[in-house]
Records
---
Amino acid sequence: MSFARILGRLSLSACRCVMVLSALFLLLFANFAFSLPSFAATPEAALSWEPSRTLVFVVGVLKWQDKSYLQFTTKARRDAQLVEFFKSKGVPADKIVYLCDTEATINKVYDEFDELLEKSKPDDTLIFYYCGHGWLDDNNEGFYANYDVRTNDNAISTRKIAAKMKNKFQGSTALFFADCCTSGSIGNSLKKQPGGYKWGMATSVTADGGSTSNWTFSQALLDALNGHRFVDTNLDGIVSFSDLQKYVTLEMKRIDNQTAGANSGNGFSDANYALAKVMNPNEPIPRLVDVKWGGKWWKAKVLETKDKQAKVRWVQIGYDTPDNDEWQPFSNIKEANGEPFNGMSAATTRNDFKVGETIEILWKNDYYKAKILKAEGGRFFIHYIEDDDSWDEWVDLSRMK
């Protein structure tokens, strides 16, 4: 360790100790992945799904006939963005079904799903997505809320969805995504009724968990499909289904403190299924901070800095759009670990750190070698190589490289 650092530590020891103790109780830093500049995909991208041979079924319900259900804002809805993504990639219009709010009645959901499955052919891929409300009955059977839902008898049954897949889908692969409470129940239903196709699942929460009203999961899915660098956990230039699952798991934990769902069946290879090619290999991992507004601290992302101010985007539903971006002074911003915001960009372009690995940690504007001892929910407990155990601490990605 350098003599300068020793002197710095002596003068800051009291502050540093408070920081270390506080870090042990630190809330996981939050993030939502904002839209970044697009880069043209190269024609040689080797993807596991072919747009012309893909069927897309999207049900997005944010308003319900029964007003006792919590209604959501329709501002910047990610289900619509997901549909636009597949259209832009060349999925034929007659192979895309999008049932939005009042369109998503129980009869229409089942009828339209049947019709789409009847169009399937060998080697086709099906993509299923739902957002809204979900729950389990007393037998742990999963349900998703259609617009005109009244009871379990006229709700979207994950068991029935799985049965329709088994009996009518002629393709080879299916991907299931859901953003709601108990969203992972679709995986349980698929396991109980295996068909002649491989399938992978990523959901906002496990089969028995409650889920946030934020768009955290759906935004993560869009980030993966659009090939953002920070979803590529193994840095191979391809965003795989495994990368998506890991990224979703991290996002849901550090933003909403919940456990995402991941499942697969019939030989589906998460690691080998290529969703997208990374568009910009030099894209940094977004910086995560807390911003003081209205007397409270809110999760946000720093987009750029200038003259001791940072342009931030909020992560809360209804405020997570460019229209709500704000410039905030550094004095209103703190790092995820509670330290004052220093205006520096994220220290790393990696998110695949492993326990036992030797890395470098940013501390007081300089880097020091450390070893990762533990990893938990997007944080890492590290030991400085040249220090004793008293300096061990929890850090996040913004201080690692």
---
Amino acid sequence: MKWLSRILTVIVTMSMACGALIFNRRHQLKAKTRNFNHKSLTIIIPARNEEKRIGHLLHSIIQQQVPVDVIVMNDGSTDDTARVARSYGATVVDVVDDADGKWYGKSHACYQGMTHACTN
């Protein structure tokens, strides 16, 4: 029984040593400076009844150092989502329902927003 205990001790010790070596050799991500070669960036935001939250999001976006075009896809909002978005300079586009009614929701709004984007 002692030999089993010794074997287990050796295995556990080796496992811990290997784990420590692997953990200490992990690569640290270095902060990189970002060089954006794009003149602008388009952000597409699908929104439905987001009046209370979209202002905070848009304020955060316009504080960025990269010039952005913001397209808010208004997916049938019944509140003042469109008004708030326009007050931050966003382009507001109403989502047009798919002809056969099979495609709707956030993915459809994002797709339609992509068709309005002017940047790559």
---
Amino acid sequence: MAGKGEGPAIGIDLGTTYSCVGVWQHDRIEIIANDQGNRTTPSYVAFTDSERLIGDAAKNQVAMNPINTVFDAKRLIGRRFSDASVQSDMKLWPFKIIPGPADKPMIVVSYKGEEKQFAAEEISSMVLIKMREIAEAYLGVTIKNDVVTVPAYFNDSQRQATKDAGVIAGLNATSVGEKNYFRGESYCWRHPSWW
């Protein structure tokens, strides 16, 4: 439940390649379009000499700035640098990954002329902030509470890292749950006679 002075809780599908945000209103879930009119937003974050870009703006410039454009951060979240999946995925990405403290994979980019390192949670938090901003622009209220979906195969470390991304983004992650669970819950809300 949203606290006093806060807007409704939003639902965010933090995807590997695209993310979307929705809100329950008018007795249904409404998926909110971004400033480009799209109901999905690329899960991309780009760093330049002058700014940070998120979503469509980041994806649109990837060909000109590949080593500083981060995508697929969800593949790193809650994992270790030494994990076989991380080592395999690194070969496909133009951006640099190095081992950080406790074997955490760190993404290395150049931002405003300086080398910066970000954890996957930090990159994901930037996407979550963008999704919150999309919802706030549409609803005209401040949003603090959210529910974020995660794949059923996520382990506890990946779920916690996703919650941490929400905290970094300034959101009160009321729940981190599996997509299929939320789909079922949505069906029950839309069809109360079913239960």
